[in-house]
Design goal:
This protein has one domain (25-171): Nuclear Transport Factor 2, Chain: A (Roll), CATH 3.10.450. 47% of the residues lie in helices and 31% in strands. It is globular, with a radius of gyration of 21 Å. β4 (111-120) and β5 (123-134) form a beta hairpin. It has five helices and six strands; from the N terminus they run αααββαββββα. Strands 2-1-6-5-4-3 form a six-stranded mixed beta sheet. With 172 residues, it is of the alpha+beta class. Pfam families: SnoaL_3. InterPro entries: NTF2-like_dom_sf, SnoaL-like. This is SnoaL-like domain-containing protein. Residues 37-150 form the SnoaL-like domain.
Length: 172
C-alpha cells in the first residue's frame, strides 16, 4: 500500500511539473514569435544569397534536415553542409526571396511550421518547414524545397524526368 501511495505522489508531481513547463502561450507572444520567425527565415535566405556559410547554418539546428528539389536530396545537416560548402566558397550559393509566407505556431510556442512562395533562380518555388525554439532562439529543423510547376505543364515535366526517376526508383 505504501508503494502505491508513493507511486501516486510521484506521478502527480511529474504530471504537475510537466504541465507547468508546457504552459500555453498568450496570443500576443505568438504574434511576436511569428515576427521573430520571419526575421530568421529572411536572414537565412539572405545568408545564402550573400554566400555566408556560417550565418546560413547558424539558423539551423544541429540535426536539421534539408530536402531539395532533386529526388536524391534528403540531407542531414552535416551532409548538407558538405554538399553546400563549395557553392558558398565560390561566393554564389542560391538566392530565394519570399513572395508570401504563412507561419503557424504550436499553442505552447515552442514549435512552428510554415510555407512560403519563393522567387528563385529556378523561377517560382515552394518552401515549407519546421522551426523549434532552442535556448529562446528560433532554429530551422526541417526544410522542404519544391519547384512550382503549373498543372498544365505536368505532362511535359513527367516526360523530362521519367528516365532519371526510373533510375532513382531502381536504387531504392
Amino acid at each position: 500500500m505504501k508503494k502505491l501511495i508513493v507511486l501516486s505522489i510521484i506521478t502527480a508531481f511529474i504530471s504537475c511539473n510537466t504541465e507547468k513547463s508546457r504552459q500555453k502561450v498568450e496570443d500576443f507572444r505568438l504574434e511576436k514569435s511569428k515576427t521573430e520567425i520571419n526575421i530568421v527565415l529572411d536572414a537565412w535566405h539572405k545568408a545564402a544569397a550573400d554566400a555566408d556559410f556560417d550565418a546560413y547554418f547558424s539558423k539551423m539546428t544541429a540535426d536539421a534536415i534539408f530536402i531539395g528539389t532533386d529526388a536524391t536530396e534528403n540531407w542531414e545537416n552535416a551532409a548538407f553542409k558538405e554538399f553546400s560548402k563549395p557553392y558558398f566558397d565560390k561566393g554564389k550559393a542560391w538566392s530565394f526571396t519570399a513572395l508570401e509566407r504563412n507561419v503557424f505556431i504550436s499553442e505552447y510556442g515552442d514549435i512552428a511550421w510554415f510555407d512560403e512562395l519563393l522567387d528563385t533562380q529556378m523561377e517560382l518555388c515552394r518552401g515549407s518547414g519546421v522551426l523549434k525554439k532552442v535556448d529562446d532562439t528560433w532554429k530551422i529543423s526541417h526544410y522542404v524545397l519544391s519547384i512550382a510547376i503549373p498543372n498544365d505543364n505536368v505532362p511535359e515535366v513527367i516526360k523530362l524526368k521519367k528516365e532519371n526517376d526510373s533510375i532513382v526508383k531502381s536504387q531504392l
